[in-house]
Amino acid sequence: MTENFFTHLSPAAKKTKILSKGDFLFRQNDPTFAMFFLQKGQIQLIRHGQDGEQIILHHAHSGETFAEASLFSDHYHCDAVALENVKLQLYDKRYILQQMQQNPTFSMAISAHFSRQIQAYRRRLEIHSIRRADQRIFSALLAGLTMDDIKSFAAKIGLTHEATYRGLAKLVSQGKLHKTARGKYSLRCE
């Protein structure tokens, strides 16, 4: 089923929120109230360890949902901080849980969404495990990860933007990529 679960949501169940860079959407141990869809920008999910160390759990990018686990938890298990100016949708937790219980079509659609997201996370983990930057970049592009801009693409695949620029240059020199414009690349078809 490829139906989007968003189509089943009442407009009253969602709210638009704007955050500025550095703003917190929620803090670790805050009571849960919603899951989120990131329309524009990046959100970083950070957990604080017992000794105060910060553990980066996830970078959410435009077009992704996040804090899905909050549907089944009383408190957020991490902080969510805007890495840049952000626009997002909040989906009321109680409403979503009610729809999951009462609306089989919605339940199937949101389950399919969660399954696709798990597959995407696994694909990213696989890509992150590749040591060489050029191979990681090429694998990410083959897997269909888009390159809106170099810095956000680098963050998606766990590289610095400098390593990404070097890797892209190497792939162009190897004939695997074609540079179409400044910061724009396409796979070469053989």
TrEMBL record:
Residues annotated as transmembrane: none
CDD domains assigned to the protein according to its UniProt record, in alphabetical order: CAP_ED
GO cellular component: cytosol
Taxonomy, superkingdom: Bacteria
Signal peptide: none
Protein name (record): Crp/Fnr family transcriptional regulator
Domain Cyclic nucleotide-binding: 1-117
Species of provenance: OCS116 cluster bacterium
GO molecular function: DNA-binding transcription factor activity
InterPro entries for the chain: cNMP-bd_dom, cNMP-bd_dom_sf, Env_Response_Regulators, RmlC-like_jellyroll
